[in-house]
Amino acid sequence: MGNEFLSLVAENKALMLYMHNRYARNADREDMMQEMLLNAWKSFPNFNSESKFSTWFHNLCRNVCLNHLRKEKTSPKLILFPGDIPDRPYTDDIAEKKKLDKIYHIVINSLHPIERGYFKMYLNGLSFKEMEHLSGVDENTMRVRIHRIKNRLSKKFNGLLEW
């Protein structure tokens, strides 16, 4: 059981680090990481293979993060990483690249925090079924929401490009 757990956690280390970087403040980082691993170890015997380990582990890590936030009574700060941003138009001009980066950050940060969370799950490659399991929102409803978010982002982005 120990070796299986360690290999599964090693495969999903990026997921844990993502949640850790997304929610943890500097002072809490080590504590939160330890709590994620400890909770996963304690709960691992209850893990059933009906769902993917990554989905189960994401849920567990998210719950640890949310519990920390509830204790602090603060809202999560969404940190954008370069991989979270959709493909940008290609340009060699450095000033143009900086302008496009700024526009992408403005557009994505303009989303409501819940929509931003849905969109980030989509950008991170989660299936709609996994998104349903994590969020509690029906799979078809999630498809519609993501479609609408993408349309709104596209309109905002194109509007800002003309500015």
The chain-level structural class is mainly alpha
Got a strand count? 0
CATH topology of the largest domain: Arc Repressor Mutant, subunit A
Indicate the mean pLDDT.
77
The portion of residues assigned to helices is: 55-70%
- Termini separation comes to 57 Å
Question: Would you identify the CATH architecture of the largest domain?
Answer: Orthogonal Bundle
Radius of gyration of CA atoms, rounded to a whole number: 18 Å
Q: What is the general shape? A: globular
**Beta-strand percentage range:** under 5%
Which features does this protein show?
163 residues, mainly alpha, Rna Polymerase Sigma Factor, Chain: A, Arc Repressor Mutant, subunit A, 2 domains, 8 helices, 70% helix
Overview of the molecule:
This protein is mostly helical. The chain has 2 domains: 2-72, RNA polymerase sigma factor, region 2, helix turn helix motif (Rna Polymerase Sigma Factor, Chain: A, Orthogonal Bundle); 82-161, Arc Repressor Mutant, subunit A. It contains 8 helices and no strands. It has helices spanning 2-11, 13-23, 29-43, 53-72, 94-109, 113-123, 128-135, 139-161. Helix 3 (29-43) crosses helix 4 (53-72). The chain is globular and about 55 Å long. The termini are far apart.
